[in-house]
Amino acid sequence: MLLVLGGVGTAVFASNLFVDGGSTGTVYAAVALAFGLTVVVGAYAFGPISGGHFNPAVTLGLAAAGRFPWRDALGYIVAQVVGGIVATTLLVLVGLFGPEGWLTTAQEGGFASNGWGELSPGGFGIMAAIIIEVVLTGIFLLVILGVTHPTRGTPLAGLAIGLTLALIHYISIPVDNTSVNPARSIAAAIYGGGDALAQLWVFIVFPIVGGMLAGFAYKALFDGAK
């Protein structure tokens, strides 16, 4: 809920207020930092309780790497999706009491949903979205697994993870509005309209593919005894 409230909330509020006549790049920067900062805050606040995943692709990637029990993955994923939907529902409730036409404009603009083609901020196609989601989610998992390693980790893990997520958004917002998190994508798409829902499958499948590939690869390459 915190991640989607911070990231998607920044996206829908900033986009509706500041893009017309202003700098789109400034909005991109604000959204990237918002997603990164929410992960930093969440990791330090809730990491000691749950591990601080907030992302089905991260949960499954950690399970693939042997860092998280497979039996617990479904419960985490359900909680992540529900938390995200609660957050976007709160944003809609705020919008109901906003300026006239604000909520309609936000939903017609996709409500910060992910997409390709006409739904891509930069007009990129489906293969661009698939590649960017697999690669960047994989990189995200490699960083997470590295900085939280039982013997090689760092107390600054939460900061490193949050900054990595911000960097990922700087790279890929123009491509597909940046998912790397199926729960975030589901939460936005349910209010983003039919086109966003039709393209949602890409942002469920391929972040999970990237996360699990990275989990298996990290275990094979970097978790040995030598």
From TrEMBL:
Major subcellular location class: membrane
Keyword annotations: Cell membrane, Membrane, Transmembrane, Transmembrane helix, Transport
A GO cellular-component term linked to this record: plasma membrane
Transmembrane segments: 24-46, 73-97, 124-147, 154-173, 200-221
Protein location: Cell membrane
Membrane topology according to the record: Multi-pass membrane protein
Family statement: Belongs to the MIP/aquaporin (TC 1.A.8) family.
Native source organism of the sequence: Microbacterium sediminis
Gene3D superfamilies xref list: Glycerol uptake facilitator protein (1.20.1080.10)
Domain of life: Bacteria
Protein name stated in the entry: Aquaporin Z
Pfam families assigned to the protein according to its UniProt record, in alphabetical order: MIP
